[in-house]
Each structure stands twice: as structure tokens, then as C-alpha cells.
Write a structure and sequence with these properties.
about 270 residues, alpha/beta, Rossmann fold, 7-stranded mixed sheet, 10 helices, about 20% strand, binds S-adenosylmethionine
Length: about 270
């Protein structure tokens, strides 16, 4: 937790918890059989099992799966929860359980997986007929000059105040904005674009929902250091609500999307 957002509950409320709410709201019914691909520290699967769902969560990172298992093991009420199993596995080579799941979900994983079409076909195979896929993913290729301009303004204010660990940006707005766009395009390497994810999602599933959500502010919160924690919390809340407003009023193009689709018979 040290040095990460997890050491401040109010930062988690504004970030990971918001993402979890989006996944939770996409899962209907009780006691569902759920597969999470790329669970990381497993917090979403843990919460879903606490709600009574039966969850299998896989991740290829052994360290993270061990952490997830350790966290789940500390739950004193685990016997009253839904089943929860973590596995160390690469989804691409994982044997899977075709036709076993009511829901398969990806949270911030698909953007980084090679051959998304193949990955999503495999996810489809794991679903029962009329099962649902939930994808909560970011597509940084959508960042444009407007979003970068907003980020520049926030970052410079924090930098001038000495309240960020993020790297220095030029004092000249056009140069600093270009720096943000350049760094963003560097991070695009090996990362699927929105279209590379959306096309197979639409081909393989019947779309129920496509929605857009704030996400750029995560990078700022992760490296913010405002000495007064009450002020830090207010600033973090302002940042998130500002991004939400800019998205809602069509002023910036968001990066985080949620797709919910149904496996219909072909
Ligand atoms: C950014 S983290 C997201 C973790 C969590 N789902 C969340 O929303 O916070 C991406 C995770 O996907 C895992 N991952 C990436 N490719 C994978 C693959 N092919 N099979 C299994 N896990 C994978 C990584 O190890 C990492 O833990």
C-alpha cells in the first residue's frame, strides 16, 4: 500500500471503488458464476464473492495472485461468502471451463492483451448462452488536445504549489501540452486502441450498453501530495467531478469505457 493510492481510503473511494461500482451495476441477479480475467490484487472478485457470487479470478502474475489469496484469507466471514478461487494463469493458454459462466469480466486488462479478437472469442466460449461480458477498459489513443490542455492546467497548478511527484512540464502551455500528448502516445505502444477492442466486442456479443467514464484524473491522484489530507481529499473530489462534467458536457473525449454485451446464439 505504501506510496500507492491504497494508503488513502478517500482516494480509493474516488478511483477503484468507482470502477467496481460500474462492474457491480453490470451484473444482474444473485449467486452468479463469474470469471474475472486479469484480477490483479483481486479486490473486485473479493467484493463480488462477499455479495454471494461464485467467482473464479485469474491473473498471470504470481505475486498479485498470492496477495489476492492472502487478502481473501483474512476475511473472518469467508465461509458465509460465495466461492472464491484465484488461479495463476495466462488467459490465452488457460484451459478454461467452456460454457460455465454467467458473467466474464475484464477490468483494465483487455487494452494490454495481444490479439483482442482471439481473447474475446475465448471469453465468449466460457459463457453460458445468454451470459454477459463486461469490459471496463481504457483507450488512451482517444486522448486529444482538449483533454491534454485540461490535464496541463491541473498539473501545472500542482507543480507550482509543490504538490505533485509527476515530472516537470514546460511553463509554456503549447509546449507542455505537446509533452503530455507525446508521453501519452508513447504509452500507446502494445496497447489496443478503442477500435481494436470495440470491433470484436460488437462482432461477438449483442451490445447492451456502452458508457463513458472519467479516468484521466487517476494519473494525477496517484502522484499528488497535498500535505493537508482534508485539502487533498477536496481537491481529488473536485478533479473527478470536473472530469465528469467535461465528459458529460461533451467538452473532452474520455478514455474509460464500459461495454456490456450478451452472448446470443449464432
Ligand atoms: C492494470 S491491472 C488491472 C487489475 C484489476 N483488474 C483492476 O481493475 O485493478 C492488469 C492485470 O492484468 C493481468 N494480465 C494481463 N494480461 C494477462 C493475461 N494474458 N492473462 C492473465 N492476466 C493478465 C496483469 O498481470 C495485471 O495484474
Amino acid at each position: 500500500m505504501k506510496g500507492s493510492m491504497w494508503s488513502q481510503p478517500y482516494l480509493i473511494d474516488l478511483t477503484y471503488a468507482k470502477n467496481f461500482e460500474l462492474v457491480k451495476a453490470s451484473i444482474r441477479g444473485k449467486n452468479r458464476r463469474i470469471l474475472e480475467v486479469g484480477c490483479g490484487t483481486g479486490f473486485m472478485s473479493l467484493e463480488l464473492a462477499r455479495m454471494g457470487h461464485n467467482v473464479t479470478a485469474i491473473d498471470r502474475d504470481k505475486y498479485l495472485v498470492n496477495l489476492a489469496e492472502r487478502t481473501a484469507g483474512t476475511d473472518p466471514y469467508r465461509k458465509t461468502r460465495g466461492d472464491l478461487t484465484f488461479e495463476i494463469a495466462n488467459f490465452s493458454t488457460w484451459p478454461g471451463r467452456p460454457g460455465a459462466y454467467d458473467v466474464v469480466f475484464f477490468s483494465r486488462v483487455l487494452h494490454d492483451m495481444l490479439r483482442p479478437e482471439k481473447v474475446l472469442s475465448k471469453a465468449r466460449e466460457q459463457l453460458k448462452d445468454f451470459g454477459r461480458i463486461v469490459c471496463l477498459e481504457y483507450a488512451y489513443n482517444l486522448m486529444n488536445r482538449r483533454s491534454a490542455t485540461w490535464l496541463y492546467q491541473i498539473r501545472r497548478i500542482l507543480e507550482v504549489a509543490g504538490w505533485t511527484r509527476l515530472p516537470h512540464l514546460s511553463e509554456r502551455p503549447p509546449v507542455g501540452i505537446d509533452e503530455i500528448l507525446r508521453k501519452n502516445s508513447e504509452r500507446k505502444q502494445h496497447i489496443n486502441s478503442f477500435e481494436e477492442m470495440r470491433k470484436p466486442l460488437e462482432r461477438l456479443f449483442h451490445e447492451e450498453l456502452l458508457s463513458w467514464h472519467p479516468y484521466y484524473y487517476w494519473d494525477i491522484l496517484a502522484d499528488m501530495q497535498i500535505p493537508d489530507k482534508r485539502e487533498e481529499k477536496s481537491f481529488a473530489m473536485l478533479l473527478r467531478s470536473m472530469e465528469e462534467f467535461l465528459i458529460g458536457s461533451g467538452q473532452i473525449q474520455p478514455a474509460l469505457f464500459r461495454f456490456v454485451g450478451v452472448k446470443t446464439r449464432r
